[in-house]
Design a protein that fits this description.
By secondary structure, the protein is mostly helical. 60% of the residues lie in helices and 6% in strands. The strands form 3 sheets. The protein has a two-stranded antiparallel ribbon with strand order 1-2. The chain has a two-stranded antiparallel ribbon with strand order 3-4. The protein has a two-stranded antiparallel ribbon with strand order 5-6.
Length: 326
Amino acid sequence: MELAYIPSPSRGVLHLGPIPLRGYAFCIIIGVFVAVWLGNKRWIARGGRAGTVADIAVWAVPFGLVGGRLYHVITDYELYFSAGRDWVDAFKIWEGGLGIWGAIALGAVGAWIGCRRRGIPLPAWADALAPGIAFAQAIGRWGNWFNQELYGKATDLPWALHITSSTDGRVPGYYHPTFLYESLWCVGVGFLVIWADRRFMLGHGRAFALYVAAYCVGRGWIEYMRVDDAHHILGLRLNDWTAIVVFLLAVLYLVVSSRRRPGREEIVEPGVDGDADASGDDDGAAAVGEGDGEAAVGEVEGDPADLDKPGADLDKPADAESAKKS
C-alpha cells in the first residue's frame, strides 16, 4: 500500500441540474483566459492597443481547438473508426484528446487571419502571446488529471498518480504523473521566455520560436515515459518524432531570423504611434496659435500710432520717453 501518492478525482464532471460541469473544459477555458490576459499586458508594453490580443484570439482559439482535435483524431483514428467504435465520439472533445501540434498549427492560421484584418505582423503578436500559451498548457494539462489519462509507467515514488478507473483498458495502480511533469515544464518554459525576452529583446517571432523549441525538449522526454497506445516509427512514438522535427525548425528560425532581422519591432500596431504624433501636432499647433495671438495683441497694444487716435489712453505712458515727460 502506498503511503504517499497523488489521488485521482472520483469523477471528472459535476452536474448542475441538467448542465454538466466538466473539469477538462474548465482547465482549457482558464488557460485561454490566462494566455489572453498575459498576452494583452505584453502587447501593451510593446506599444500595442489594449484589447487587440483578445480580438485576434477570437480567431485563433476556435481554429486551435479544431486543429488540436483533428490532430488527435487523425493520429489516433483507431479510437474512433475501428471495429466496435462509434465515430460520433470523435466530436466529443470534452472527453479529452487535443493535440498541441495541431492546436498551434491551425491556431496560427486563425491568428494570421485576425492579424491580417488588423494590419498587425503575426510574429510580433505571437511573441507577445508566447509565455501565456505555455502557462495555458500548464493549466490545461490538469484536465487530463480530471479524466485520469496520459499517465506514465508504473512507479512507487511518493508523487505517484493513483489511477482508479478501469474504463478504456486502464489498469488501476500507481503511475508516473506525466500530466504533472508537463505542467511544471510548461511553467518553466513560460518564465524562460519572459526572462529571455527581457534580456535579449527578442522580436520578429523569436520569443515564440524559443517557446516552441523549449517545449519540444520537455515533450520529448515526457512523451517517452507515457504508456498509452500510440503509433511508433523506428522505436519512437509519433509525438517524439514530431517534437524532434518541430524543435529543429524552431531553432533554425531562431538562427536565421536573428541574422536577417536583428532587434525588435519598433512599431507593432500601425496607428498607435501615429495617433500620438497627431495629438502632439494638434497641441503644437494650438500652442503656436496661442503664441501668435499673444504677439498680435502685444503689437496692437504697443503701437505708438494708436496713441494719436481719439480715445487713446493718454494717461498710460507708451514708452520710456513718455514716462520721462510725465
